[in-house]
From TrEMBL:
One of its GO terms (molecular function) is C-C chemokine binding. GO terms for biological process: calcium-mediated signaling; cell chemotaxis; immune response; positive regulation of cytosolic calcium ion concentration. InterPro entries: CCR1-9-like, Chemokine_rcpt, CXCR4/ACKR2, GPCR_Rhodpsn, GPCR_Rhodpsn_7TM. Its main location: membrane. PROSITE patterns: G_PROTEIN_RECEP_F1_2. This is G-protein coupled receptors family 1 profile domain-containing protein.
Length: 363
């Protein structure tokens, strides 16, 4: 690299030289900010946490899918939404072993095609899980608040729900496309990396941060707060003995979503500010990277709770899960009494239109 000798005869030349030195100092600062201790910590922390989330989430969501496929012979709208929520969580979870291996080895060894594929699974599952939670919330709202409005409630058929499901998957794909397209494998300092590299001088990276904040927190949380704030007064006016349990479940839904996703989105917003030049110090860079390790894992573990919150809270659904476990693992679960199979034989299908049977309805 040729040495650039400054010309100090004019103010313009001096300004150019000063800018050159500033750019060199910023480059040096970025190099100093590479924290080897953080890298060593993430080599142990991320694979461990990703593995736990993968195992727990895989078990819970697989049970939901198995129960819905095996027993729900006459699916309703709620079952269709719940099935796709669990499916999107499973799509997301499939990507975690690859990221765990990547973090442990600090090098991407799966090639360019798998870099695009794993990124696609990651983003599709991420947005799909959020969008299907929104769809389930809107469905609950219309079926509770507008249940006596014929021109609204009559549109919630299974066929209409399938169209909405396809639209949600298309919407998830559209939101994921920038990350999928711009993900690439690069050789950096002799190590292969898989990351999203947006073109320099474009607004794609800033757009990605804003997209995550709006689609990942602001919009879904706003929909949940609006819908459930209208649902609760309707529930409290009912004479059903289960209304208090339903209200508690609503608070759990909103609170868990807020606690698990808000820290992640706050760090995303701070990284957006950091990219714009605010808080542009090594300390902030290191703090944000450490914070991202924690809040990312907390947010990702939400997919482990979805089966519990949306499915396992119902007694009938828990019985169905137990029945599946007894069939698959008779030595471990064979001692539990069989009640679901008897119910299935009597009715021919455990999926009833009664609100008590559908595990994800509010009352």
């Amino acid at each position: 690299m040729a040495m650039i000798k400054p010309n100090m005869t004019g103010n313009d030349n001096y300004s150019d030289y000063y800018n050159l030195i500033s750019d060199y100092n910023n480059l040096s600062l970025n190099q100093v900010c590479k924290n080897d201790n953080l890298r060593s910590f993430s080599q142990v922390f991320l694979p461990t946490l990703y593995s736990i989330v993968f195992i727990v989430g895989l078990i819970g969501n697989s049970l939901v899918v198995c129960v819905l496929v095996k027993y729900q012979k006459r699916s309703n709208v709620t079952d269709v939404c719940l099935f796709n929520l669990a499916l999107s969580d499973l799509v997301f979870l499939i990507s975690l072993p690859f990221w765990a291996h990547y973090a442990a080895n600090t090098e991407w060894t799966f090639g360019g095609f798998m870099c695009h594929t794993v990124t696609a699974l990651y983003m599709l599952g991420f947005y799909g899980s959020i969008f299907f939670m929104i769809l389930m919330t809107v469905h609950r709202y219309t079926m509770t608040v507008h249940v006596h409005t014929p021109h609204i409630s009559k549109h919630w058929s299974v066929r209409a729900s399938i169209v909405l499901v396809l639209f949600m998957w298309a919407l998830s794909l559209g939101a994921s496309l920038p990350a999928i397209i711009f993900s690439q494998v690069k050789n950096e300092s002799g190590e292969w990396t898989c990351r999203v590299e947006y073109p320099q001088g474009t607004a794609w990276e800033s757009f990605s941060y804003i997209e995550l904040n709006f689609l990942g927190l602001i919009i879904p949380l706003s929909v949940m707060v609006f819908c459930y704030s209208r649902i609760i007064p309707v529930l409290m006016a009912m004479k059903s003995p289960k209304k208090h349990k339903a209200v508690k479940l609503i608070f759990v839904l909103v609170t868990v979503f807020f606690l698990f996703w808000t820290p992640y989105n706050i760090v995303i917003f701070l990284k957006f500010l950091h990219r714009l030049g605010y808080m542009n110090t090594c300390q902030w860079d290191q703090d944000l990277n450490i914070a991202m390790l924690w809040v990312e894992t907390i947010a990702f573990s939400h997919c482990c709770l979805n089966p519990i919150i949306y499915a396992f809270v119902g007694q009938k659904f828990r019985n169905l899960v137990l029945n599946v476990l007894k069939e698959r693992f008779p030595l471990c679960f064979g001692q539990f009494p069989t009640t679901v199979s008897q119910l299935s034989h009597r009715t021919g299908s455990v999926s009833s239109r009664s609100p008590e049977i559908s595990s994800t309805k509010i009352v």
